[in-house]
Amino acid sequence: MSAQDITVIPVRTARQLRRFARFNVQLYKNHPYAVPDLIRDTINTFRPSRNAAFVFCEAQPFIALKDGKVVGRVAAIINTKANEVWNVKTVRFGWIDFIDDIEVSKALLDTVASWGRERGMDRIEGPFGFTDFDPEGMLTDGFDMIGTMATIYNYPYYPEHMARLGFEPSAKWAERQVPYQGAPEKMSRLSQIVLDRYNLHVAKFEHSKNTEARIYARKLFHLVNESFAPLYGYSAFSDRQIEDFARRYVPLLDKRLAVFVLDKNDEMVAGCLSMFSIAKALQKAKGRLFPFGWWHIIKALKWKHPDTLEMLFVAVKPEYQNKGVSAIPFARLTEAAIGAGLTIGETNPELETNIKVQSQWEYFKDVRIVRRRAVFFKSI
Questions:
Q1: Which of 66, 82, 120, 268 is the most exposed place for a label (fewest CB within 10 A)?
Q2: Which of 131, 151, 175 is the last residue of a domain?
Q3: Sequential DSSP letters for 321-378
Q4: Is the link from the previous residue into 127 a cis peptide, with omega within 30 of 0?
Q5: 252 or 78: whose pLDDT is higher?
Q6: What is the CATH number of the domain that holds 267?
Q7: What is the dihedral of CA 351, 355, 356, 359, to 10 degrees?
Q8: CA-to-CA distance for 266 and 261, rounded, in angstroms?
Q9: Contact between 264 and 242 (Cβ < 8 Å)
Q10: How many Å apart are CA 321 and CA 95, to the nearest integer?
């Protein structure tokens, strides 16, 4: 396919946005390891009325066409807040998918670069979303395993295209698989010692009390802003985003799989969120909640649990880091997971430079890295 055969157009209409959202599902149709996006979620992500990140972000999705058929997609995003914090002029690319044709990937990324230059940007980087709650990082290793709800799956040719187009890695992540063979005794002892030493306690609430859980969730997201601030490219959540997250996601979570560590004044100093894996349920849904996709997802969350836990994130207040406090949510979550009959834990991507969180896996046996991913950049 020659460059002259490819047309990249900005998404302007509702029909074009649906084509943009569907392309990922179509490209990975019946793939054994890809976890498809929910088409409706993708559409809502690019509607300013539904995505609070548009308060501090500018974005434009694009689709690449060949003979009227979609052969690629990408979104150009400028996160003004992140650029100010990190003192960069970066245009992000995200939601990138393309057939195995270098002219298609080149046309998509050239379009993002041009869009960014027109707005004063001097570098392009991705895959990133609006914020860290969006999928980020291109898969570079671990293509033969089913992905997770919160991460990107892509064909092995994607990173090959990035190298051919002159992009270099700017950050790398690893994802681990943790066999649950019993709560690590050393970690459990350390957890209790730290609880006593700093006069901390673990929040207790009724399984059905969503109102109470939302309060804790709001505190946790504020804590995430504090603890994640030094991590590469992090963009803090706004109050509106935090309210949206609490409203949308707390009802879906099993309260047993959330741990909130409080001080004597009931202020949160550490916490974590996890959920039963819905990767296979999303595969069955094939990108759609209706007519039957919602049933597969709710069944996996509420009744017929898989044997795998997806660890979404762990956050520790900066002044409590390096004091063993992180052992508390890890130990309690492990106990809860085993109690719920889970046999495997899957971590979300962890920066290879984030030694603090990676050190926790030393307490467990047979932990292994199962996937690696990276974001890539280039000056424009």
A1: 120
A2: 175
A3: TTTTTTHHHHHHHHHHHHHTT--EEEEPPEETT-HHHHGGGGGSSS-EEEEEEEEEEE
A4: yes
A5: 78
A6: 3.40.630.30
A7: 110
A8: 9
A9: no
A10: 34
The per-residue pLDDT for 361 is 83
Residue 254, pLDDT above cutoff 90: no
* Residue 133 in this model has a pLDDT that exceeds 90: no
Asked if pLDDT for residue 281 goes beyond 60, the answer is yes
Give pLDDT tens digits for 175-186. Answer: 999 998 877 889
Number of helices (H), then strands (E), belonging to the chain: the values are: 12, 14
Q: Are residues 191 and 283 in the same domain?
A: yes
The torsion angles phi and psi of 223, rounded to 5 degrees, stand at -65, -40
Pairing of strands 69-79, 57-66: antiparallel
Average pLDDT over residues 49-74: 96
Residue 286 pLDDT grade (very low, low, confident, very high; cuts 50, 70, 90): confident
Apex CA 241: angle with CA 153 and CA 205, to 5°? 95
User: DSSP state, 27?
Assistant: H
Q: Average pLDDT for residues 341-351, to the nearest whole number?
A: 90
Q: By CB neighbour count within 10 A (0-12 exposed, 13-18 middle, 19+ buried), where does 218 fall?
A: middle
pTM assigned to the model: 0.90
